[in-house]
Amino acid sequence: MEHSAGDAVGTAPGPVLDAAGIRRTMQRLAHEIVERNGGVEHLVLVGVQRRGVTIAERLAGFIEEFEGASVPTGRLDVTLHRDDLASRGLRSSPQPSDLPDIEDQHLVLVDDVLFTGRTVRAALDSLNDFGRPHLVRLAVLIDRGHRELPIRADIVGKNIPTMRTDQVQVLLEEDDGRDAVVVIPGGDRS
Amino acid sequence: MTTETTGTRQTGVSDAPEPVAAPESPQGTSASWEHDHVLDLDDFTTEEILTVLDLTDRMQEVLERRIARVPALRGHTVVNLFYEPSTRTRASFELAGKVLGADVISLSVATSAVQKGESLIDTVRTLRAMGADSIVIRHASSGAPYLAARHTNASIVNAGDGAHAHPTQALLDLYTMRSHFGDLTGKRVAMIGDISHSRVARSDLWGLTALGADVVVCGPPTLLPIGLDASQRPEHAQQALPPVQIETDIDRAIEGAHVVMALRLQSERQQGGLLPSLHEYALHYQVTAERLARAQPDHLLMHPGPKNEGIEIARDVAAGQHSIIEQQVTNGVAVRMALLSLLALGADGTGAATGEGGAA
Lengths: 190, 360
What we know:
The structure holds two protein chains of two kinds.
Chain A: H1 19-37, E1 43-48, H2 51-67, E2 73-76, H3 85-88, E3 106-114, H4 118-128, E4 135-143, E5 155-159, E6 167-171, H5 173-176, E7 180-184
Parallel strand pairs in A: 1-2, 1-3, 3-4, 4-5
Antiparallel strand pairs in A: 6-7
Chain B: H1 46-63, E1 77-82, H2 88-99, E2 103-108, H3 118-129, E3 134-139, H4 144-150, E4 155-161, H5 167-181, E5 188-192, H6 199-210, E6 214-218, E7 245-247, H7 250-254, E8 259-262, H8 268-271, H9 278-285, H10 289-292, E9 300-302, H11 315-318, H12 325-345
Parallel strand pairs in B: 1-2, 1-3, 3-4, 5-6, 5-8, 6-7, 8-9
Helix pairs in contact in B: 1-5, 1-12, 2-12, 5-6, 5-12
């Protein structure tokens, strides 16, 4: 249950996950990914820009710790495949896509927050341009609900009930200077 | 003829909303874009130029994919309206539009059949009425794209107007240089040849100056534009061109240069009485291996094409190890993808009706 999103307006809510929580969650994700895959063979982790990339790299680090095998990782920039491009604009993306060979691999798509599902749809479309993986699984750190497309995650770090207007922020050491997941209660903006 | 600033969007474009952590691009970062048209680089801020170059990096990655096609401009129509012959620019725009999923139509108009002015306006309006979102214009008359931009709400892209401007070529030149040097601040760029009639040189000059490069132009006095030297310009024309070093001696121009750019010499210039003979021009102004020995050891040799080997550039150096002429052509597609998508979509979603902005 934790912090339900509807806390009083104006009070800064505590993190839904703190640094230790994020570490434990990611370790479990890493175990689950390997378990689902029946080992590390053919496994490729592809993060969706920007924080999905950081998470994918950390997961690969944990997998290497547990299994003693290194798993190739990549990053995917899905901007040009988004269906809301006209309203979002191009924005600046940190880096272009950079993928290892995904042909016939067991690809795990990694993102920080699963929300409407539109990013994942764009990511799946975009992957087609790079090759045909044997299968694609979706791993997310946070599932906050409110899907607009028939998409679900195979491996979820934490489910967080939210209002549609809330903002869920995943902050990571590498990108933001600290590890935390926070829910910012939304006002009237969406 | 003069540059009239058309096409400034009134919406306040701010930084991309992603929090913290700067991308690691060599110069600048935040997305900035306020243009409805791309007419010349004289009204581009440094940030806007960098926005285009950063986006070009992403487009380059798309071009390297096994299937180089993304749906970003699906439903958009790009029309190439070329009143002058062109191979690379036109093919480059066509490819750029197609890779982005736009519908691309290319029209060639024989110059003789077209009355300047009104009929250009009519053509542009007709194309807009048929649903063209972007119209790419090449025209022999300086300023023609500006005229078109005043009479349509389609986005006009200047693909070369007379001897005035060629902003997309300049941006691909900047992109090519930046991908080798990272930062152009303090880099010495020598442009050699027919400066007077070169729209490439003029647009490059704006762009290079904005990015902090030191530009030296060199050519025979008859091919250097009047008023190039700011000290000889009247007060009102001080902003007409950025400051530039002027040389008539090619060896002095190339001395210490990081980039040497040879410009195309049109053979008509000889008939026009500006040159005694092509042979004599080649003797004094051809970019040769011997002359390039004075440049920086890791210098780049560029040419906007099409080149006259044996006249402004020696054959061996055009195909030599410092030549990045083919890279310029390759980069042209990605730069034009960046421009077409910025015009259609904006940097932050000012392009079309509002929708949901939530991440997922």
